Each structure stands twice: as C-alpha cells, then as structure tokens.
C-alpha cells in the first residue's frame, strides 16, 4: 500500500507541475485577448463626393480649361474625359493666414502627444485608406487622368507603406540618441534630439 501511495503522490505532483503552468499560460492568453488595445484604430467616415460614386456622369466640356471666362473660379475637370468636376475659388491671403494659424495651434497640441497616441492616429489613417481605397483610386483617376493600376500603386500603396513604416519604426527612429565624445570632453555628454519644427511651408513643383 505504501508503494502505491507513493506512486500516486508522484503522479499527482507531476500533474500539478504540468497543470499550474498551463493555467498560467491560459490566464495570460485570456488577459491579452480581453485587454483593450490603446492604439486601436478609430472608425470614422467622410462623405464620398458624388463625382467619386460609381456610375457618375458629369457634363463633358466642349473646350476644357482651368480658367472660366468672366470668373475668378478655377474649373476642375477630368483630363481623360473632359467631364466637369466642379469649381473652386482661389484661396485668399487671409484664408492662407488662418489655415497656417490653425495648423500651428494643432501642431503645438500634436507635439505634446506620446508615440502611442501618434501610432493610434496613423493606424486610424491606415485603416481608413485600406477601407476606402476604391473611392480614393476613383478620385485620383478623375483628377489626374491616371489608370486605376497607376493610381493604386502610385497613391494608395505608397501612402500605406509610408504609414506602415512610420507605425513600426517611427518611435525608434525619433528617440534621442547618444553620441561618443573625446578624452578632453569626457565630462560632457552628446545627445541628438529630434524636435518638431512646427508648420513648414514648401514651394515645390508638381513633378
């Protein structure tokens, strides 16, 4: 009896050793599954312009041109078909100043965010682009005359890849870095810090 009792106790001990880690792993997996992701993308919608909806047919201009006779408005049209997309009023200097002021205020708030908060914004943009890529491709084709394949690779894929790279490597790339010093300056430390510049304007060509 003592021999069988000893074997039974050993079997129970082995089962306990196996069961406890298994329970811990299961509990950890459940915790991970139930835990909310603080960087999860947020769903949002933007109304799709009528011009970008399937089946839209706009007025075909006889002589497509950017300028409209007797008006300061800019005439937008699909270069591939000559269809009128709409009219846009040129931006006044005052509107430009107001836009820059709003951007500067937004940038100050953005500069105070954490990398986790920034990744959440970038993930939200990434999800929106992937969910609405058909509408984005259609808009790019209408506006520039590109083919769907060219718009998909040149607009959607490039933007998605840039967002993905920044999400994966942005924090590491922008984290402050130490630099070596020399013997005479041993009492000092060198550090490279990446500080946001704020609103930056650039005058560049279209191509």
Report on the structure:
With 207 residues, the protein is mainly alpha-helical. Among the domains are: 44 residues, no CATH class; 84 residues, no CATH class. Helices cover 52% and strands 7% of the residues. The protein is built from 5 helices and 4 strands; from the N terminus they run αββααααββ. The strands form 2 sheets. Strands 1-2 form a two-stranded antiparallel ribbon. β1 and β2 form a beta hairpin. The radius of gyration is 29 Å and the shape is extended. The N and C termini lie far apart (90 Å).
Share of β-strand residues: 5-15%
Helix content: 40-55%
The end-to-end distance, rounded to whole angstroms, is: 90 Å
What structural class is derived from the secondary structure elements?
Answer: mainly alpha
Topology overview:
Elements: H1 2-34, E1 74-77, E2 84-88, H2 93-111, H3 115-131, H4 133-144, H5 148-174, E3 177-179, E4 190-192
Antiparallel strand pairs: 1-2, 3-4
Helix pairs in contact: 3-5, 4-5
Tags for this model:
single chain, 207 residues, mainly alpha, two-stranded antiparallel sheet, two-stranded antiparallel ribbon, 5 helices, extended
Briefly summarize what is shown.
Among the domains are: 47-90, no CATH class; 92-175, no CATH class.
């Amino acid at each position: 009896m003592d021999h069988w009792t000893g074997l039974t106790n050993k079997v129970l001990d082995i089962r306990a050793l196996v069961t406890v880690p298994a329970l811990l792993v299961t509990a950890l997996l459940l915790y991970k599954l139930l835990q909310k992701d603080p960087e999860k993308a947020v769903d949002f919608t933007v109304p799709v312009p009528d011009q970008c909806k399937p089946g839209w047919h706009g007025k075909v201009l006889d002589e497509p041109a950017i300028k409209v006779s007797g008006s300061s408005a800019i005439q937008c049209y699909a270069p591939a078909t000559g269809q009128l997309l709409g009219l846009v009023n040129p931006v006044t200097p005052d509107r430009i100043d107001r836009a820059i002021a709003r951007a500067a205020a937004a940038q100050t708030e953005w500069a105070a965010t954490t990398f986790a908060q920034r990744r959440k914004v970038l993930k939200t943009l990434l999800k929106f682009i992937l969910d609405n890529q058909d509408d984005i491709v259609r808009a790019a084709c209408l506006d520039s005359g590109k083919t769907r394949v060219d718009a998909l690779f040149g607009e959607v894929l490039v933007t998605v890849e840039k967002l993905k790279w920044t999400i994966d490597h942005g924090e590491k790339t922008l984290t402050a870095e130490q630099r070596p010093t020399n013997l005479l300056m041993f009492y000092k430390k060198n550090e490279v810090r990446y500080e946001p510049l704020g609103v930056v304007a650039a005058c560049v060509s279209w191509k």
